[in-house]
Amino acid sequence: MTWIDCTREHLEAIRGIFNDAIVNSTALYDYVPRSPEVMEVWFEAKQKGGLPILGVLNEDGVLMGFGSYGPFRPHAAYQYSVEHSIYVDARFRGLGLGKALLQRLIERAQQQDYHMMIGVIDAQNATSISLHEKLGFTPCGHIREAGYKFGRWLDLALYQLVLSTPAEPREA
């Protein structure tokens, strides 16, 4: 396995993983698969914000999964808080990649002086909830019937990890 910072060359593979999650799961509360144009805007926003897109390749150079984070909310006082997401290609689930990706995102968030990471998880996703709990995330909220997909209402579970960074927070 090779750990990478994803580039434009990985966008189509990322799009494939996103679109599988959109069509086949409640990991994303979207209905419509993402177009190449939407992915380009997403990638540009990550680049402009200095936000990571971490990936892992197998020995054949296939992207097995990726993780990223972005602003939790757009207001200035949230400058030290990020919402993260992790997606693993269905062919490579069960190999511990989700845990490894989340650990690397935590490390990167600390390096970038963030203070809080939040995961917004479909409340029925026991695998993701367990992963977050194993890495020290704690429940911090439950939002009933936040989304509607596949003919049913979906609840959200919020999990947070408070980091020791930054050493000297400032108001922007």
What does this molecule look like?
The protein has helices at 11-24, 36-49, 97-111, 126-134, and strands at residues 2-5, 53-57, 63-71, 81-88, 116-122, 138-149, 152-162. The model has no long low-confidence stretch (mean pLDDT 97). The chain has four helices and seven strands, in the order βααβββαβαββ. The protein is globular and about 40 Å long. Helix 3 (97-111) links the parallel strand 4 (81-88) and strand 5. With 172 residues, it is an alpha+beta fold.
Show the helix and strand layout:
Elements: E1 2-5, H1 11-24, H2 36-49, E2 53-57, E3 63-71, E4 81-88, H3 97-111, E5 116-122, H4 126-134, E6 138-149, E7 152-162
Parallel strand pairs: 4-5
Antiparallel strand pairs: 1-2, 2-3, 3-4, 5-7, 6-7
Helix tally equals 4
In round numbers, the mean pLDDT is 97
Could you say which overall geometry the principal axes of the C-alpha atoms support? globular
- In whole angstroms, the N-to-C terminal distance is 39 Å
Detail the poorly predicted runs: none
Strand ordering within the main sheet:
1-2-3-4-5-7-6
Give the tally of β-strands.
Answer: 7
What would you say about this model in short?
This protein is 30% helix and 33% strand. By secondary structure, the protein is of the alpha+beta class. The relative contact order is 0.15.
